[in-house]
Structures are given as C-alpha cells and as structure tokens.
Amino acid sequence: MSAETTSLIRELDCRISDGIEVRLLWRPHDEVVLVAVSDARTEESFTIEVRAGENPLDVFHHPFAYAASRPKLAAIAS
Questions:
Q1: Which domain holds residue 52?
Q2: CA–CA separation, 5 vs 40, rounded Å?
Q3: What is the per-residue pLDDT for 69?
Q4: For residue 19, is it within any domain?
Q5: What is the CA radius of gyration of the chain?
Q6: Number of folded domains in the chain?
C-alpha cells in the first residue's frame, strides 16, 4: 500500500490482547469503516469491511464472528 493511500485511512481505535491486534479504521474519502486484525504469533492478518446496518464497534469487538461470514480484504499496512 502506498504512503498516499495509507494517509487516507484514519485509525479510530486499537486494542491488543494475547498477540492479536484489532484496529478500527475509517476511509473518509468513501465513508468506509474497516476492521483490521493481525496475529503476531502466526503472522496472519485480515481486514473486513463493516457493512451498512452493522455496528462498527460490534465488528471491532467481535471480528472473528463477522469474518466467518464474509470474504476478507487485503491486509492494511500497519
């Protein structure tokens, strides 16, 4: 991801627990909210888009439940 693209994404919240980092992100140019998850132990990561009608904080607090029902997006750079 380019530096220009990264600057268009704003981090609204972040939490880390047991090596798993969860970030709540917002792209103001298209009003999209994303939740990015990365596991430091396995080096796996995924990003999911919050859909219309979903509570962004609910997706942020339960990303694995939401990820199970949809395709993942490319990883967002840290």
A1: 3-67
A2: 24
A3: 84
A4: yes
A5: 12
A6: 1
pTM: 0.81
**Which is nearest to 50 in space by CA: 77, 24, 16?**
24
How do residues 17-60 score in pLDDT, each as one tens digit? 999 999 999 999 999 999 999 999 999 999 999 999 999 999 99
| pLDDT-based confidence at residue 76 (cuts at 50, 70, 90) | low
Assign 3-class secondary structure to the chain.
CCHHHHHCCEEEEEEEECCEEEEEEEECCCCEEEEEEEECCCCEEEEEECCCCCCHHHHHHCHHHHHCCCCCECCCCC
In a domain, 77, yes or no: no
